[in-house]
Description:
Elements (H helix, E strand, L loop, with lengths): L4 H11 L9 H11 L15 H6 L2 E4 L11 E4 L9 E5 L4 E2 L11 H5 L4 E6 L2
Antiparallel strand pairs: 1-5, 2-3, 2-5, 3-4
Helix pairs in contact: 1-2
Amino acid sequence: xxxxxNKAAQTATAGALPPFGIGKCAEYVRQALEAGGLNTAGHPSxxxxxxxxxxxxxFQAIADxxxxxxxxxxxxxxxxKGHPSxxxxxxDGKNWVSDFIQDNMWPARAYQAEKAKYQVYRYKF
Length: 125
């Protein structure tokens, strides 16, 4: 089954919690990916480790497009001090969404202040 990125985006947005989520970004993004038709069996627990799983299920790492994302793009952000699990989020066509709807691609100022490393992934099929 191909990836329905619109359904994934709708699921992510519908499940988002106000205002800042509950620290379960990987779980919420996983649920959105699965709603879009992808099999995430064997996925890792911390968000920061999702890159290989995304590649396995049909995504590819792309150049940074965080300022011009496409619906269904996923960003995996690496751990920083105080956030050992890192973060992941899916673009819904308007906002980056994890377990909450974000103001921008940075889920918290600390990630931006530390210039956390991240990778953008896009479904390739």
